[in-house]
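Supplementary notes (optional reading)

For those who missed the lab, this is the record we used. Protein: FAD-dependent monooxygenase. Length: 404 residues.
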Amino acid sequence: MKNYDIAIVGGGMVGAALALSLSDTSLRIVIIDQHSLKPGLIAENAPYSPRVSALTEASVQLFKRLGVWDTMRFQRVCPYRHMRVWDGEGTGEITFDAGSVGYPQLGYIVENPVIRASLLKGLEDTSVDLLEASGELSFRPLEAGYEVVPEKGQAFHCQLLVGADGAESAVRKWAGIPQSQKDCLHHAIVTTVEIEKHHQDTAWQIFLDTGPLAFLPVPDQDGKHYCSIVWSLLPERADAVIALDEDAFCKALGRAFEQRLGTVIRTDKRYRFPLKHRHARHYYRQGIVLVGDACHTIHPLAGQGVNLGLQDVEALSRELIRACERDDDIAGKHILGRYQRHRKGANMTMLAAMDGFQHLFHADDLAIRWLRNTGLNLANDSHLIKECIVKQAMGISETLVGKE
């Protein structure tokens, strides 16, 4: 039976990034996933994926250190240099510009399959084992570590078990790690739409009484303009919108967006999923540790979901590399505890902030409406406030400002 130091359950963006971050160490690592782990790169003219991520500068710097950023750019990425956010029920509006912090862009919109394929490509020249296992996994505690048993295939042992297997994490559930969960009261409709006017290298977001709507820039194709959309709606409204035919959907979407980019010409296939805030009460337990969506999920209105997961990767890999260099116990409570202390507060702060934003913009009280519109306009007039918001959103520090 094969023995590994670390078994990462889940070969998505976060799991693959963690494996690649640790690949230069002496640690024996395996990724196990139910889906293909072959790095099928995305062709330039391939259909857009409905799932995209808004990568911050901090996340891009991580991918550069891992040597995969050029692979992403070779496929398809779209920088955005500006953001425009406004209240669809009032007059409040705020704009952000990358130039305010000395960067050429605020971030990049990148399709999730592009990110994952690039990370898997980067793992090809490493000693990390990639194991595709259909069916459910089961786990068995050992005297030191765990046995991982695929439904089909050979079992193996590991010293540290990492749950990077998404919001419905089998690792978290089996470990009995409790989580808090809160329904965001919205369902998100995601797709790619062709628009009449160019997106102006801008990420757009309008707050409506039914929920936020985001238009995120993606690269043009054949002289045509496109955006990825995330339309958050109350469930009953989402029922009606998802049932519309393409022409009616495009018209409804254009009206909701105030035609800021002209006519919505056509749409790709639409997908829908419920939005929930989740947060694990503990990030580790007896040689098991959680990262990414297995540990926390967040409303997409700020585009921070995968970036939080990548920050988990940086914190955990730093602790594990330090332990490896000192010949310390990588599954030790003192190692995993430091990871939890570093990440738990930051993740909880972001969850609380998104919860506050949701309530602020969902409130129907006239006084609160006046307050949020006044606040947006006042913030828009303050260079200092906007600069602080931009730096926080980009995940950059003072020492990074102005650097590529």
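If you only remember one thing from this example: Residues 398-404 have pLDDT under 50 and may be disordered.
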